[in-house]
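Report of the visiting student (M.T.), summer placement. My assignment was to run the structure pipeline on a short list of targets and document each run. The first record concerns Succinyldiaminopimelate aminotransferase.
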Amino acid sequence: MNPLLSRLQPYPFERLRQLFAGVTPAAAYSPISLGMGEPRHPAPQLVKDALIGHLAGLGHYPATAGEPQLRAACAAWLQRRYGLALDPGSQLLPVNGSREALFAFAQTVIDPSQGPPFVVCPNPFYQIYEGAALLAGARPYYACSDPARNFAVDWDAVPANVWQRTQLLFLCSPGNPTGAVMPLAEWQKLLALSERHGFVIASDECYSEIYAHDPPPLGGLQAAAASGRGDFKNLIAFTSLSKRSNVPGLRSGFVAGDAALIKSFLLYRTYHGSAMGPSVQAASIAAWGDEQHVQENRARYREKFARVTPLLARVMQVALPDAGFYLWARVPDAFGLDDTGFAQALLAQYNVTVLPGSYLARAVQGHNPGAGRVRMALVAETEECMQAAERIVQFARSHADRPPSSIST
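After the run finished, the structure tokens were exported:
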């Protein structure tokens, strides 16, 4: 077996399953899950129609690079969304969702032959970044976010000798789980570091179309172009239809940026066997070409956040995120519970599932920046999210003044 597999930590949802193994959910309440970031709004009809209408394509092997029509549709979306003119033949590549692409990209660009390099990622973070780094023979370096600065990552705390040995930087803006959006100045700092040290930037932008207010979140390619780096050297952006169009099961997205990196990534994927099926390509063309369903989707999230956030803010430290569909809430100190204990007790007493923040981060110098927080995914319909929020308020008020030993799980 590959010995690097032993370095992987259990995935957050496996840890959550183990955490809840001895918990009996309150039978008096219907189950509500805010734990998993899986969009549950209806998939657009135009995507369904395109998928069903192109089933004849199942009789053919697809090209790894995708059909020209799909690449053109993705490039047209980049033009409309960010004002960028990319060559769809050399600067863009369809992928089977951003998750598999983020993992595979690390295997493409990491060279561990001179000793393990660093892969820098935010902390808290999407666990694929860590797994991709470890299985590529690299060492993850965790750059912690700062709650005092709206959870902006403290890139200045990364030592110079780490940047010198860094080959890949994972970014996530809007962030998971914090919802923080990187401003242009932060992008320019990281682009300058990339230019100085030669590392590649992988910009995970799968939440870019779910935002609370205008203007839309700045994209990595957009920031590079605004900084005079129109060739996008050492920069690749990853995006997906899963959140934008409520089709996580479609497994469709694309990467775009540095043509040299796209060329190498295409070579890797040719052997990896990751071509997108023809019917999925047709459905993806329909999705990238339509904005009405995206606007309607965004409006539904805005309504949920506008109603749920003030309610939860009565009992928890929580604020409207810049973007994304998560609330990153602090467990009240008065409970005497850590984030895992809070999740257990909430499930046991009110049948609501949340994800402990410590599962989404790693301890740095003895401190886990996710500890004491929980991530709530507002992916269900508005009324169900409101029910969950009302139960959390009841839970908080009934336990705030009780001694920790009396809070049953």
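The radius of gyration is 21 Å. The CA atoms of residues 54 and 277 lie 10 Å apart. I thank the supervising group for their guidance throughout the placement.
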